[in-house]
Structures
1.
Amino acid sequence: MNKNIDIEQEMYKRAVEFIKQRYPVGWGGAAVIHTHKDKYLISVALEVCNASVEVCIETGAMCEAEKYNEKVTHCLCVVRDDERSPFKILSPCGVCQERLRYWGEDVKVAVTTKYDKLKFVCLKELQPYHWTGAYPKEELEHYSERD
């Protein structure tokens, strides 16, 4: 089987298992990031009283990858409305796309599809007209140079 498919299936499995454990009733959501050193990092959204200070579900795992100086290869966000609802895959918002772009345009992200089919695409496919196209690659390389 394709290594990427194995990684993607494993990420989804880990997200669903984590949500069931962390949020046994009600809403639940988790993000899983895979790194070039084959680590799976899981994060959740902070519960806050003031909506203006919320951060995306993926943010914690991205910060953890940076903490360990690891390159992100894949990102997945899964939610459910309550314990009786199906799991949904959420494409990364524009802010998270910008954050993930730090690790390069080849980071694979899970995207929302009809019937919640598990599908990953590279950021460059999701953002074919990204603003970085206005600059020579060599000017931007230091932003995505990671181990």
2.
Amino acid sequence: MSEKTLVGIVMGSTSDWDTMKEAAQICKDFGVSYEARALSAHRTPKELEAWLADMESRGAQAFIAGAGAAAHLAGVVAASTILPVFGVPIPSKYLKGMDSLLSTVQMPKGIPVATLAIGEAGAANAALAVVAVLALNDAGMKAKLTAFRATQADKVRNAKLPELN
């Protein structure tokens, strides 16, 4: 039997990959198995539902969902599973991602979507949040996350400001 796929990364269209690849990269860096798909809550709802069910049957522990404009992919994912869902608002052409942020964060009581920042930082942080959840029951993952955080702190401690001319 193959290894479980722990994280499902879903985006509304292939054009969202430039943002969502940040989540995939963090998963890869931490050795977290993932599957990334472009599926639309509005254009391919049946395929999305089937994929979510399949991911759960293969051991998924969380989903990261990114969508732009007023698309509500993360909300549809959250309504379809009891697993944690981390929403990533994708920058949009006209409202620069504010529409994406509001449609992702403003969920009705009882169907949570943990919503991250707009864009690449949000995608990376969504994956880091999933890593933190996985680290609750995985000592190896906890050690990797602790080391990552220490490296982040070292970068700040070792940073040098430019000299004035």
